[in-house]
Amino acid sequence: MGKIMLEVNNLNTKYITRSREGIFAVNDVSLKVEEGKSLGIAGESGCGKSTLALSMMGYYLSPLHYISGDIIIDGKNISGMKPEDIRKNILGNEISYIPQAAMNALNPTQKIISLIEDVIHAHNPKAAIKDIHDLARERFELLGLPPEVLKKHAVELSGGMKQRTVIAISTILSPKVLIADEPSSALDVTSQKMVIKMLRSLMEKGLIKSMVFITHELPLLYNVTDDIMVMYAGQIVEKGTAKEMVFDSMHPYSKGLMGSIIVPEAGIRNKKLSVIPGTPPNLKHPPDGCRFAERCKYVKPECTLTNVATKVFGNDRMYRCIYSIEQLKEVYADE
Amino acid sequence: MKGYKKYYSNKIIWYLLTFVVAVILNFILPRLMPGNPVSAIAIRATKGMTSQTAIQKVYEEYANTFGINQPLYVQFFEFVKNLFKGNLGVSFMYYPRTVSDILAKSVWWTICLQLPAIIVGWFLGNILGAIAAYVRGVWDKGILPSFLFLSNMPAFGMAILLQFFFGVYLKWFPTALGYGYDMNPNLSLKFIGSVIYHYQLPFWSIVLITIGGQAIGMRSMSIYELNEDYVKYSRFLGIKDSKIVKYVFRNSMLPQITGLALSLGTMVGGALVSEIIFSYPGLGTTLLAAISGRDYPLISGCTLIITIMVLIANLAVEILYGFIDPRVKAAQQD
Amino acid sequence: MKNLIKQVFHSPKFVVGFVIFIVIFFMIIFYPLFIKADPLDMVGGLFNKPGTYVAVKDVVQTDEYTLKINTALARLKSISIADKQSMVDWLIKFGNVKKTEVDIDEVATLVDLWQKNYSSKVVQKGLLAAEKMNYVRLNNKINQLINSGDVYIATKDKDGVLSSTKPLDPQAFVNTKDIVNKKTFILGTDNFGRDVLTELVAAMGTSLKIGLVAGTIATLFGLVLGLLAGYVGGTLDDFIMFVTNIFTVIPSFILLVLISFSVGESARGVMLTAAIIGFTSWPWTTRSVRSQVISLRNRNHVNLSKLSGHSLPRIILTDILPYVASYVVMAFILQISSGILAEAQLSMIGLGPATTKVSTLGLMLNWAMAYKAPLTGSWWAFLPVILAITLISFSLNLMNTGLDQVFNPQLRD
Predict the structure, then answer these.
(1) Cβ of B246 under 8 Å from any chain A Cβ?
(2) What residues make up the domain containing C282?
(3) Measured between alpha carbons, how far is B163 from C384 in angstroms, rounded to an integer?
(4) Among the residues of C350-408, which ranges form H helices?
(5) Domain boundary among C146, C167, C201
(6) In this complex, which chains have at least 3 CB pairs below 8 Å with chain A?
(7) Are C210 and C354 part of one and the same domain?
(8) Interchain CB distance below 8 Å, C262 and B32
(9) Which helix or strand (DSSP H or E) is residue A63 part of?
(10) pLDDT in tens, B247-280
(11) Overall number of domains in chain C
């Protein structure tokens, strides 16, 4: 097993609303990402993927609040660190983030190179301007972006170019972990391809050591990431390698998700399309027991009584269900 | 730069057109008064005059100014021709001083008072508004309602309050005039000191009123900008809050600059009445005297000069805006 | 609609503004019903302080009651702090009194020391002649206050001879309820001797009327122009916007001055002034309505009506107007507020309604300034007026912001 770049242990975070109510955001999440590997996080809209991404950065902006758990980046536990420490030493250079709809993430009245200068100065106030410019040009060339972009303002760039520029800026300090939140969702197919290529290139060249790729587009994950994690209502319900997850998933929800993929992949093509009825639960008052219970085809009375713990098997495989592996295989075979 | 040229030349042409309209209005409006304008005004203006020659001279002056025996368009040409020569007519109250002579002095006092006051008020107001939006908490809950209240006070209301409180009650500052009544304008240190001393209350009354209005607008703009995605992204890149505030401030300022252009006319109007409260030797006091004295040429000259000042200021703000906002540059390049 | 009204009344800003406005409104309506005095009646003296004024003759001729109150001490207490400080300073510097012997809080002993030690004949080194005179005056004032001499009321008999029975008892008090002739000026009197409070209430009513008329004219005008410009578009739009932009940049204040002056004093009544204000304030409403109409122009329901062959006026009335309504209401409120302010401004420079029958807020301020009320310290003649203008404008603006937040949820904070 390679060096672990990102390790999250039993992370719990909460949203506190204006009326001082708490809505559980992320519940008991644990994961590991090795050097050179990428982890995909999949799930429905509203399941907590983006919240998990924000929670893992260690920088909590109201109304998001940290409750408990560890976040360890390359051996450094950042959960106890002060916000100013995190801002200076962690954000951007140890762990970095590509936001959703990165198109709007750039200040319309600022030149790209100016933003890069600010990012580098925020971590290394003594850096020389010339060095910063050289680094920026190098990086852009390396990643296939025209260096003229540096002198432009965000408002002068196209959507796809903005997205790739954001990726370049987020990785300019060669972070150990890159969290990409739906990096290609709002783009046309050609731009999507360029974005994926760019992310792959970053990994291959060692400019980033590991990646977490969040999306609701499952077909993408099979081709892009090594491992896949499925989230539901703020909890992880299953985790495994991409191949295992797509072809041999255990949890009823993962099974349903994979079954709703409309993709001409060999091996899945002949399976029937399935739809998961119902909607995710309200996280203000999470239900007792399994959160998926009310939508699950195989629900038993016991499912709603106690909280379901995660079960580990195989090579770092994990799933969260009251049924054992044999029971699940039985139930699926009956279909 | 080519894009800019078109943008700016359009603006300048437009302002010239507006100026033409202003001149026309200045000419037409009083002449729309029913009845014979000359006799009505002349009677009022010569009330109390005893010297026959003086009365005759006034009538003649009026007749010349209005040229009533000539058709309207001829009168207009005369008016414009005189305008280009810098001849705004002769004042009735201060006969035989010309209007331009009287205004030349007042204009400087007004510009030196209002220009810095509006600029300072604008800056301070925007800074306070940005801070209120960023810091929130006590600053926001305490300052905002008081500024909201303040911004609804008419400019001359603030002027009266300051005059009463600081001038009469606390006796910290003089209550009227631009400089000590026992002095004559000269370049001595004593005179300059007196000017500065008399400058305070009128200056601060305009500043305070401007702050009130600007702070509220800027606060709303800043709150809006602070919720924009690029702010969150910059935070996650590790950029310091103080730097992010600079981004937000810059972006929020742009609509504020446009807002400044739109409200300049109202601000100047309010500041003029404030000048009257302090009997400050600017255009406000001159206008008041002209109105009470039914001095038509002086009124006409005052309003024209004030309009020109506002037009120039507006144009300046729009030019400035074109340079600052890169989106304008981008729009020109399509 | 009902839901909208409920939302509106849940907005805190709107409710606060509404409450303030209603209070002012009720005051304007109900006050004259209780206090039936003519607001322009010159009842009092010039710039009388607020307070209750009792007829001195009645006081002297009414029932006396003896109260065991030390009136002398109360009079001593009325010596101002500044005067007391002056006394202390003089006594220490020139009166051979040590600092420890004199206490500024003990008025009785202070006055005692003063009486014993003050003399204008003492060498007062370092004092200007004017300052020495001030001390002499202060001494006279003190003497008057503590003067234990008797005061007599004399009556004349038929031969013109003055005679008096006994001096006034310093402990004699009267019950103000027994006195018939008294007048309370809650806000004092102005430069004409008018009761400020009564005049203020009447003036608020008039100013509000002006604001309403001006606001209605400006809003209607702006609405029509905005609708035409926005919906018809093309050259009509270009033309209307050209004119509107010009009138945005040329200060409306200047137009007001020019028109008001030209109309002449005799014709310039309350209504005409309101009309003039209304006809110079339309640019802002026009823009606002126009931009809203433009965004509505291509909505589906409008296109449907066009396809159905409905006439232009009908489309504008049924499809566009309801959506513009919210903007119009907000614009109307703002126009009322700016109308009141504009009237005040005009009156301040003497171009307001030329009327002796009614008073407006601007006119009250104008008179106060003309008679130099601030310089004489007669704060009651102008402070309440400024407060009234600000409060009315404030309440209207609050209501407008509240409405804005209801109609445009993204503005809610």
Answers:
(1) no
(2) 2-44+191-411
(3) 16
(4) 361-370, 383-407
(5) C146
(6) B
(7) yes
(8) yes
(9) none
(10) 888 888 888 888 888 788 888 888 888 888 888 8
(11) 2
